[in-house]
């Protein structure tokens, strides 16, 4: 597959992206070109009719019948040519649009397939914006390229080609004169480009600045209002707006005159006037007859529109190149290595071992170093420590959001890297603080991991997660679409996500204990659900409140990415280290153990 | 008259766009008007210049060369004038563009700065960001790139039709009849394409949403991908987008074709009419005069068709321009909070709600229903209730995120609507979940609360909010740059800096949303500390989550379904065995919960 082979940098990104549909696009361009040529036939037709008429002026009635037939044939041929031409152009447009739709569709699918294999750690909050930009906006930019550019080039070049040939065939001297505005246009255009290059850099810098300043201004308004100060962000925004307007003005001002000249050059009026003026001269010196200049007056102005069209399209080509580059970059995102079939191993049992595991997000910042511990089947292990100590990084390594930079993690004796992704998640489930429900029915959300689960199984899972009653109370029950039919509170979402994990029934569970964001009723319901769910499983808990995990079989105290203490609650308290400090800080000791409330 | 209808069809669309431009440009509208007039004059002049070819060709074809020369001079003057005018039209267009980029953006900025805080939902913020950057850029380029060719493309043919009338009555009439027909067809095809376009945009937006979901929920999708792969939802959306894309391609190709065909049909009809007309004139012989007349008329017809075809090509561009203007219009139409003419100052830090009713949108259910509440100055009130009971809304209304639907909110006996927004803001510190930080150092961000704060005050606030620990860890301390939007710090760290920022402001009223603010244990502790220290010194309203917070309060208010169901001191409520008592027991149970089940003090089972 092309997505797996590294693509050479030297290749033009647009070419690479359009490769698979190039053939269709060329056909589309040819159709459009041919169509345009045909639509120009009536102009020649008019000239032809005029020719016939003038040749037969002041003739008697006798010949009129003959002339009339010839004129009518010309009219009919012209009309037929126009309509056939239009049909061909339509066919060209359709071919291009359908080819484009095909290309954008396959590009999107390719991106999806690729991203489904990159390390989970790649998906930061920033990535979702980038992915959306590339998959939707950039591919949409490519659309205008594929769907419009080729046919437009075909149309324009068809029109130019047929006009030039026709005019030269009639009279080469006059043809040269009539086409003179063309090089004039290109000359002014070139000068415009050169003068814009000078200010381009400033323009782009200012454009970037106004974009980032605007984002900050817009996001910061609520804060600014809360503090009642006329914020720095607003004056920054105002300044960026003024600066940009100035840069825009400076950038466009020299262009305006040049572009106006260029455009005026290829206005039909100019071309027409030139043809008439020089035509008159040619008539005066006897090079041509009056009737002979008619075709020039008719056809020459027609080259203006396609020329301008070409110019506009070339302008768009620049942004398409950037878009293609971004899409290609996304298609080359490094992926998590999947084990070869012969490397694949099946875990025996589900003991988990961290062996000298280190992880660094970047070269400079080490998040975890030299972590060693074992999760014995059926035991509970808690990770505690101040925020930023590396607790969630450790849990994410076990879930293979990314791979360790050093050392290895094994499940039942098999390195996680030699396990197939689906096999890994059959063994290890998780309930994390950040709950994500999918925009789909509640049934689909619970059955996400097992779409074939029966209604009974789904309901059982929901019941175990303490959410069944709530779902039944919804207007559409299990078919209610999350975010559309129903807005679930944070705690309710958490319970749905627990039901989802229950349905998969994994022997190992990674749990983020924080339930702080939910109200009291929800918190109890979640805790009940978790109590039921965790029974008999190997458990790794990221603990935020130490008292919740004081009965864990082993507690790992993490600080600055290393395990500095390890043992049971009593054992750790006796050590009088960081754990003891955290315990005192949390004020847990003063809270008397409450009585078990009656249920 | 038929031309009247033509103007109506195009006019309706044109008038809407014009209205939007008026709204966007404000006092800069004169520039826009000037530009439109110049473009119109330019179009007329172009049309007139083209018609000069009639006398020239007539004379040339009749063999009267000298008589053609003066007209030729007129033509050349006309061309020179058009050439010169073109430059002024483009300059006027650029000036309108600059006005949009400068005046329009300022106007947008000032407008959104007056909008209620509640307006800034994530989707509105994203929309605003897009409009203020790309949207404005696109609109600014409209005059020079789109309006000029369209205006001249419409005006010049009108002039030519008049010339046709003079030259060849039947042709002129046919062209005149054809124009409204053309306009009608353009109108219909635009509508047709817009319908397909809307459907496509809808699917496009759906897919975009799925893409974001796909990226954000990737961990969940992949972990639960056992049987079917993690991509099925997104793939389904993409397939739908693909199908509507095919439909759009067909429909827009069809409508473009229909436009061009109609123009060509008109052309063909004109051609035939010219021929038939000649037959009528023929009578006995083909006089040279007739032939010349007919030939020149046909020439004019071809000059008439060309610009019309060009205008037909701009349909799609105009459609998207309309979309951009719609977006701007949507934002500029949001109602800002009214500012009082004669602002009043509160006489104390008391908060009072009098029979407050509120709903987020006219047809949505009420969020608060007849809520009345008095919070004495310097007292602490804890607000509890299930999610969705209206706690957050109540706190936000006090900070005037929105205005109430009915009833009133008073601070120190003054209605918040009677206070200037700056003054109201100076009365209230908020610790809510929005913790946006600005590019700059940690110190810069804390100083937003009090620009002239002394170093001692800074240290104090940083210490109270638990920011000192963060500062100690960082090599550059309080001068560490936080990055764009605070991106270089963790969520918890940002939250604590936001708390420090609110504290240093030192205003008499403090609103705290503990349920959302207390993300991790450190922040919970920081907030508890803040509350304990400020209690008795400020009027405090806290959406309470921790038992310790509730216990500290002078007054507890229990909300349910947008109404106050219980109210009183902690002792009173505990005794009454109502909702508060239930809350207490749930919290106790939650607090006593242990992750391991083998102990006696586990949760209910």
Question: What does the radius of gyration of chain B come to?
Answer: 35 Å
Oligomer: heterodimer
Largest sheet of chain B: 6 strands, mixed
Q: How does the helix and strand content of chain A classify structurally? A: alpha/beta
Helicity of chain B, in percent?
55-70%
CATH architecture of the largest domain in chain B: Up-down Bundle
Number of strands of chain A: 10
- The percentage helix of chain A is 55-70%
Number of strands of chain B: 10
What are its keywords?
heterodimer, A: 599 residues, alpha/beta, Rossmann fold, six-stranded mixed β-sheet, four-stranded antiparallel β-sheet, 20 helices, disordered N terminus, disordered C terminus, B: 605 residues, ABC transporter transmembrane region fold, 2 domains, 22 helices, 65% helix, elongated, ABC1_TM_dom (chain A), cell membrane (chain A)
Could you describe the 3D structure shown?
The complex is a heterodimer of chains A (599) and B (605). Chain A has helices at 13-18, 22-39, 41-55, 61-115, 125-170, 172-178, 181-227, 232-265, 268-284, 290-299, 304-331, 391-398, 421-427, 442-446, 455-464, 468-472, 490-504, 520-534, 569-575, 578-585, and strands at 352-360, 366-375, 380-384, 406-411, 414-415, 428-431, 508-512, 538-542, 554-559, 562-567. Chain A has 599 residues and is an alpha/beta fold. In chain A, β1 (352-360) and β2 (366-375) form a beta hairpin. Residues 1-10 and 591-599 of chain A have low confidence and may be disordered. By secondary structure, chain B is of the alpha/beta class. Chain B folds into 2 domains: 2-332, ABC transporter type 1, transmembrane domain (ABC transporter transmembrane region fold, Up-down Bundle), CATH 1.20.1560.10; 351-433 and 508-592, P-loop containing nucleotide triphosphate hydrolases (Rossmann fold, 3-Layer(aba) Sandwich), CATH 3.40.50.300. Chain B has helices spanning 2-25, 29-51, 53-61, 65-113, 122-140, 142-167, 169-216, 218-223, 232-282, 288-313, 315-332, 391-398, 421-427, 442-447, 455-464, 467-473, 491-504, 514-517, 521-534, 547-552, 570-576, 579-592, and strands at 351-358, 368-375, 380-384, 406-411, 414-415, 428-431, 509-513, 539-543, 555-560, 563-568. In chain B, the strands form 2 sheets. A 6-stranded mixed β-sheet of chain B has the order 6-7-8-3-9-10, sandwiched between helices. A 4-stranded antiparallel β-sheet of chain B has the order 2-1-4-5, with helices on one face. The longest helix of chain B is centred in the middle third of the chain and has 51 residues, at 232-282. Chain B starts with a helix and ends in a 13-residue tail after the last helix. The relative contact order of chain B is 0.08. Mean pLDDT of chain B is 81; it is low at 1-9 and 598-605. At the A-B interface, α3, α4, α5, α7 and α8 of A face α2, α3, α4, α5 and α7 of B. Chain A: GO terms for molecular function: ABC-type transporter activity; ATP binding; ATP hydrolysis activity.
């Amino acid at each position: 597959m092309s997505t797996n082979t590294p693509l050479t940098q030297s290749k033009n990104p647009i070419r690479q992206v359009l490769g698979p549909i190039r053939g269709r696009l060329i056909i589309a361009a040819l159709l459009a070109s041919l169509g345009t040529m045909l639509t120009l036939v009536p102009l020649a037709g008019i000239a032809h009719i005029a020719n016939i008429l003038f040749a037969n002026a002041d003739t008697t009635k006798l010949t009129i019948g003959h002339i009339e037939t010839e004129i009518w044939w010309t009219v009919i041929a012209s009309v037929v040519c126009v309509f056939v031409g239009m049909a061909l152009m339509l066919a060209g447009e359709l071919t291009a649009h359908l080819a484009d739709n095909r290309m954008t569709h396959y590009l999107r699918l390719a991106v999806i397939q690729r991203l489904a294999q990159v390390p989970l750690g790649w998906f930061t909050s920033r990535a979702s914006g980038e992915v959306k930009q590339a998959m939707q906006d950039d591919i949409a930019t490519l659309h205008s390229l594929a769907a419009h550019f080729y046919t437009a080039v075909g149309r324009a070049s068809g029109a130019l080609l047929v006009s030039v040939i026709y005019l030269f065939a009639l009279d080469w001297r006059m043809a040269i004169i009539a086409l003179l505005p063309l090089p004039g246009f290109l000359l002014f255009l070139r000068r415009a480009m050169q003068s814009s290059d000078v200010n381009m850099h400033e323009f782009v810098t200012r454009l970037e600045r106004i974009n980032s300043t605007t984002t900050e201004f817009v996001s910061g308004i609520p804060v600014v209002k809360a503090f009642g100060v006329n914020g720095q962000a607003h004056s920054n925004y105002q300044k960026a707006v003024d600066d940009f307007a100035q840069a825009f003005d400076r950038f466009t001002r020299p262009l305006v005159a040049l572009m106006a000249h260029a455009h005026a050059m290829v206005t039909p009026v100019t071309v027409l006037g030139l043809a008439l003026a020089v035509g008159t001269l040619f008539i005066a010196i006897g090079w041509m007859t009056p009737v002979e200049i008619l075709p020039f007056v008719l056809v020459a102005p027609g080259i203006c529109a396609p020329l301008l069209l070409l110019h506009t399209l070339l302008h768009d080509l620049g942004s398409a190149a950037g878009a293609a580059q971004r899409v290609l970059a996304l298609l080359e995102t490094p992926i998590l290595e999947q084990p070869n079939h012969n490397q694949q191993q099946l875990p025996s049992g589900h003991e988990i071992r961290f062996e000298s595991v280190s992880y660094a997000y970047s070269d400079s910042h080490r998040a975890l170093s030299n972590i060693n511990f074992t999760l014995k089947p059926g035991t509970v292990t808690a990770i505690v420590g101040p925020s930023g100590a590396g607790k969630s990084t450790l849990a994410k390594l076990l879930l293979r959001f990314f791979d360790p930079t050093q050392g290895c993690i094994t499940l039942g004796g098999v390195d996680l890297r030699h396990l197939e992704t689906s096999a890994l998640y059959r063994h290890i489930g998780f309930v994390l603080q950040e709950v994500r429900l999918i925009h789909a029915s509640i049934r689909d959300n619970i059955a996400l991991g097992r779409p074939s689960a029966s209604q009974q199984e789904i309901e059982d899972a929901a019941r175990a997660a303490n959410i069944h009653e709530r779902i039944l109370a919804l207007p559409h029950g299990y078919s209610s679409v999350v975010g559309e039919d129903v807005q679930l509170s944070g705690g309710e979402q958490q319970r749905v996500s627990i039901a989802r994990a229950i349905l998969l029934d994994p022997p190992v569970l990674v749990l983020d204990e924080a339930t702080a964001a939910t109200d009291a009723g929800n918190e109890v319901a979640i805790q009940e659900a978790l109590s039921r769910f965790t029974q008999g499983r190997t458990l790794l808990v990221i603990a935020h409140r130490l008292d919740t995990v004081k009965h864990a079989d082993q507690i790992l105290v993490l600080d600055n990415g290393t395990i500095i203490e390890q043992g049971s609650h009593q054992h750790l308290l006796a050590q009088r280290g960081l754990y003891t400090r955290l315990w005192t800080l949390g004020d847990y000791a003063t809270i008397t153990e409450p009585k078990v409330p009656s249920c | 008259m038929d031309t009247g209808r033509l103007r109506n069809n195009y006019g309706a669309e044109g008038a809407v766009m014009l209205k939007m431009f008026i709204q966007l440009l404000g006092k800069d509208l004169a520039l826009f008007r000037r530009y439109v007039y110049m473009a119109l004059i330019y179009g007329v002049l172009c049309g007139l210049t083209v018609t000069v070819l009639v006398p020239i060709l007539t004379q040339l074809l009749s063999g009267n060369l000298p008589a053609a020369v003066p007209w030729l001079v007129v033509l050349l003057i006309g061309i020179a004038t058009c050439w010169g005018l073109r430059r002024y039209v483009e300059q006027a267009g650029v000036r309108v563009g600059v006005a949009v980029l400068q005046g329009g953006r300022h106007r947008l900025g000032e407008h959104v700065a007056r909008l209620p805080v509640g307006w800034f939902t994530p989707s509105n913020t994203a929309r605003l960001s897009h409009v203020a950057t790309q949207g404005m850029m696109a609109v600014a380029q409209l005059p020079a790139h789109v309006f000029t060719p369209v205006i001249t493309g419409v005006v010049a043919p009108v002039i030519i039709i008049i010339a046709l009338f003079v030259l060849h009555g039947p042709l002129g009439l046919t062209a005149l009849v054809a124009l409204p027909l053309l306009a009608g067809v353009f109108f219909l095809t635009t509508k047709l394409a817009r319908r397909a376009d809307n459907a496509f945009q809808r699917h496009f937006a759906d897919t975009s949403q799925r893409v974001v979901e796909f990226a954000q929920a990737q961990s969940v999708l992949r972990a639960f991908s056992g049987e079917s792969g993690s991509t099925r939802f997104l793939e389904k959306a993409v397939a739908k987008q693909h199908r509507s894309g095919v439909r759009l391609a067909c429909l827009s190709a069809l409508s473009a074709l229909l436009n061009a065909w109609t123009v060509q049909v008109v052309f063909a009809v004109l051609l035939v009419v010219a021929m038939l007309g000649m037959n009528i004139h023929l009578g006995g012989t083909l006089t040279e005069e007739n032939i010349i007349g007919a030939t020149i008329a046909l020439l004019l017809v071809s000059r008439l068709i060309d610009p019309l075809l060009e205008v037909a090509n701009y349909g799609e561009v105009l459609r998207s321009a309309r979309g951009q203007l719609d977006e701007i219009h949507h934002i500029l139409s949001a109602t800002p909070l009214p500012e009082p003419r004669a602002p009043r100052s509160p006489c104390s830090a008391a908060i009072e709600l009098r029979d407050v009713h509120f709903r987020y949108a006219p047809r949505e259910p009420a969020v608060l229903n007849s809520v009345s509440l008095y919070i004495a100055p310097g007292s602490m009130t804890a607000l509890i209730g299930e999610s969705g009971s209206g706690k957050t809304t109540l706190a936000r209304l006090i900070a005037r995120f929105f205005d109430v639907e009915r009833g009133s909110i008073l601070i120190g006996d003054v209605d918040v609507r009677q206070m200037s927004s700056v003054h109201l803001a100076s009365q209230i510190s908020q610790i809510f979940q929005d913790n946006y930080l600005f590019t700059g150092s940690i110190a810069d961000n804390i100083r937003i609360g009090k620009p002239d704060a002394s170093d001692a005050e800074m240290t104090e606030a940083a210490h109270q909010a638990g920011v000192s620990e963060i500062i100690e860890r960082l090599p550059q301390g309080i001068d560490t740059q936080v990055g764009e939007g605070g991106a270089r710090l963790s969520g918890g760290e940002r939250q604590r800096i936001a708390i420090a920022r609110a504290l240093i402001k030192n205003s008499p009223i403090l609103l705290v949303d503990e349920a959302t603010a207390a993300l991790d244990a450190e922040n919970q502790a920081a907030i508890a500390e803040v509350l304990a220290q400020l209690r008795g010194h400020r009027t405090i309203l806290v959406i309470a989550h921790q038992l310790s917070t509730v216990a500290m309060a002078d007054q507890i208010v229990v909300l349910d379904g947008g109404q106050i169901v219980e109210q009183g001191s902690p002792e009173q409520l505990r005794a009454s065995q109502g909702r508060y008592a239930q809350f207490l027991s749930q919290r106790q149970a939650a607090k006593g919960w242990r992750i391991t089940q083998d102990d006696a003090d586990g949760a209910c089972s």
